[in-house]
Amino acid sequence: MAQGWTPSxxxxxxxxxxxxxxxxxxxxRWRRGLAFLMSTAGIDLSLDITGSLWTYLxxxxxxxxIGSFVVGLLLTGGVALWSILDARRTAAQLAGGGRPAR
Length: 102
Hints:
The chain is an all-alpha fold. Helix content is 73%, strand content 0%. Helix 1 (9-18) runs antiparallel to helix 5 (66-95) and helix 3 packs antiparallel against helix 5.
């Protein structure tokens, strides 16, 4: 394992809350971080979550079809929560001198 700075679990979790996968990248878990980033981007691109949310915020009209919007929000939220918890766990293991699971 590379020596040097290790992020705190709070910082790693905060970074993953900003962008899923960023906390893992900060902990030098490249594959895991890229997997979270790509899965979030894939959900967003396939279900157009950002476009639907932008439309809703600007027009105050629910996007059509509402089902795919809700499913996309739930999937994205689930991936984000998983990313936050994983980043915190990984940073805590690194801070304790342990080697996190790959």
